Each structure stands twice: as C-alpha cells, then as structure tokens.
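[agent] plan:
  1. take the single chain provided in the ticket
  2. run structure prediction with default settings
  3. attach structure tokens to the ticket
  4. add a short note for the reviewer (M.T.)
[agent] executing step 1
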Amino acid sequence: MITDKSAFIPRVCYEIFVRSFCDSNGDGIGDLNGINSKLDYLADLGVEALWLTPVHPSPSYHKYDVTNYYEIEPEFGTLDDFRKLLHGAHERGIKIYLDLIINHTSVLHPWFLEATKGPENAYRNFYWWMTQPQIEELGIQERETSDDSQEVYPWHENAGDPEKYYGLFYKGMPDLNYHSEELRGEIEKIIRYWLLDIGVDGFRLDAARHIYPEWEKDRSIEFWQFFSKVIKDTKPDAFTVAEVWAQTEEVAPYFKYLDATFHFDLSFALQRIVAQERDEQIVDKLVASYALFQKYNPLFVDAIMLTNHDQDRVASVFGNNADKIKLAASILLTLPGQPYIYYGEEIGMLGTKPDPYIREPFLWSDEGAETTRWIDPQFTTNNTVRPLSEQTKDPYSVFNHYRHLIKLRKSEPALSQIIAPNLFALHLQDDQLLAYFRPHADKSLIVIHNLSQWKKPFSLPEQKADFVHIVFSSHAQDGPELTQMEIHPLSTLVLAASTGR
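[agent] step 2 finished; step 3 output follows
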C-alpha cells in the first residue's frame, strides 16, 4: 500500500487484452513481442503503465484459468520475451502490472488435479469441498447472479467423489481456499517470483471481493491484509489495483490494504450521462465516495475507466457517435484519479457481449499485417472503425482527441493530481451541463461539458467570473479567450483564470 505521497503513480494507464493487441509472428494471435513492438506508440500516446491481461499458461482464449503461475502462455511467447518487454517498457518510463489470478485456478492446474484424487490428498484443502447435505445445511446450493458472475449453481461434481467443489465463475475455475496456510505460502512464492526475479511493477488483482466465498466474504479483507504485507516486505513500491465489482460502500474497505480499486459505479454513470445527455449529480457522488475511501486510506487511488474487457465497449454504448465517444473521453481524462484506457478505446473500437466480441483485434492498418486474426470480428472492422493508420493523419479523429486530452492531463497539475483528489462541483443550473472545479496552487481549472446536442449558454459563479482563458476546447474557438458564455453541443471547455491563478 502506498505510504509516501511522493511515490510515482502512473497518471495514465492502458489495459491490453494480449491475444488481440498485436501479432508479431503472423500466427494470428497477439503476443508479447507484438506489444514490445508498439511501446513507442504507447509512449507517444502518453501511457505510463500497462495492465496486461493474464499471460500464464491456460486452456482458454482469455487465460483467466491458470495452469502454471511461473510460466508464459506459449501462444504469447516466452519468459525471455516477457523480460524484453519489461525492459523496453522501463526504458520508456512505462510500468507493467501483471493480472494476478488467485481467486481460482484452472481444473487443469496440478494443484487441482491432485486435489481431485480424494480427501486425504495434500492439495485437497487448497480448494473448497463439501458434501451435498453440508451444502444444503448452509443454504448455499444456489446464488443470485452478480455483475461479475452469472453462475447460479456454483457447486460442481467430481466424478466418483462424495464431495463437490466450489467454483464461483464456472466449473472450469475452482475457487482457492485460503484457510490453507500451505496455499498462502505458495502465493507468497508467486508474488516474490514476479516482483523480484522477473521485476514487474505491480499487480491487477482479479475478483478481489470473492477471495473467500459469499458465506465467508468478510474474511476477504483479512486476506488482503496478508497479501499487502507480502508486497511491502518484498517490493514496497509495487502497485496494487483491485477488481472489486460492487457498489462504493462495499468497495471502500478494500482501500485499507490495497492502493487502488476500479470505480465501477463511476464507469456506468459516465456511460449513462453521455448516452442519456443528462447529469446525475455525478460530481457530488464522487466527492462523497472520496470521503468514504479516505476513511480507510488517506492515500487512496481511484482507478477510473470507461469500460474494461468485461463490459460492452463504450463506442457501442453510444451507437458509434464520434462526438459522444470523444465527450466520454474528455470527462474521464479531466476527472481526478488514475485513468485506465481499454485498448482500442482511443480509436473508437466497437463491441457488445458475448465476451469475445468486446475483445476483438486492434485495427492497426488496412493491410492488417499486425492485426490479430484469432476471431472473425463482428463489430470492429474496416467498415465500421477507421484503423489507427488513418486516424493518426486526421487532427479531428478519436485517436488525436485522446492524444490531446492525455497530453493536457499530464501538463496541467490541476488535472494530473491523483492523491487527495481535488474536485468540487460547479452547479450551472442545467442538468445537461456537467461542470467542476479542479483547484491547484499553481493554476486552478474549471471544466465544463455540454452533454446535450444543442449549444448551451452558461453563467459562471461571480467568484469564478475571471475564468475565461481557454486552456482546451474540443470545438474550434475564435481565440484564446472566452468571449461568449456558451458551449457547443457535445463538447468540452477547460478554463483558467485570465490572471493565471
């Protein structure tokens, strides 16, 4: 957990679904060398950290069911390839966070294969096992679906075994049981291996709220206390960002032991307000969430995003409306927190569930030499989305909008502040205008977004009347100063005081 405010926290992060990003060897599958070949692109975009989806050996296309925590999936490359990628990233000032899957393993993991041999096996207690009467006595035969799991019947049969095993996500992913001290010892070894022997900069922590099953969910927080101590003892500056797919009140306690958690409430709120063209007092709700997070960790990091690999792509949510795609990016990149861009959002990639279609190949160019071919894309094609090679030449493209916003975020201290979020609501008496104040000792900023498809007049509060210097506009303006108090449809203004305060 962060204990020093001066510690470097990446201001802009990027999630890569490895299989889909870039193919270096022509086999149609994204790989580590492909990512390595695009580090200059990512650095130019302004990215300072990469979250790589799982790179461990696994029988699935997504790799969230690990069979070996110490190796690299052969389709993606080798450990040497990973070391080269890490070195190349570090040369460019880019950190790498490894997706660590320790809520469950694959049924093909050696631990589970041993555990299935019977109750006396040494690995049996690495997983959850119960007889049907025990399951019924606890009333845990069924569960209600949740945003992160659609499994209703989480207990699964092991042929010829009187006990069933628990797998929250599906039968191919048996949950690990951290009552086992031996298992905790194995996890310590895995953490130390990747942080020290390999040198990764931190972990994205999958299914953090499900480390213990629902009937013992209060124990999950205690597990992260153990985990964070291992991190601190091993590599104190390693960063942890957790998937806690829940409402703010349930998320907050995880900040006690983890640096950051993804803000799912904000993700869906951003999608709604841009789609519906109406604010939901989002800034007031954010400020309230900060107060709650701060109770558990004054140095909390709010990991913010539009979508990730488990959600419909934001461009599809907005019906491929380029103005709304840009507007959502403008909001994300002018709010406090540590933003995570899902690969391809910067070119407006499309996709709706089922999951493979929100993880389609990144479009590099019309020729497609580097574009992966593991799936026949249904949403992001050259007919629906312009490839990066075209967008780089167009100053008004989605890509260049992202690039400009990231540069702005990194150049303005008021926007790049992460610890102790500097955010105050600015009420302009119009729920189609989203406005907020980002104070800073060097230069404070006002940000105004027009969520509607009509030009809107606005009036600034009297004490902010001198905020007329245009720092950024997503619409062409006549000059550097705001001469008329109005904002164009689906656009953003970032204003500073004319005196520079």
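[agent] step 4 note for reviewer: Residues 219 and 483 are 58 Å apart (CA to CA).
[agent] ticket updated
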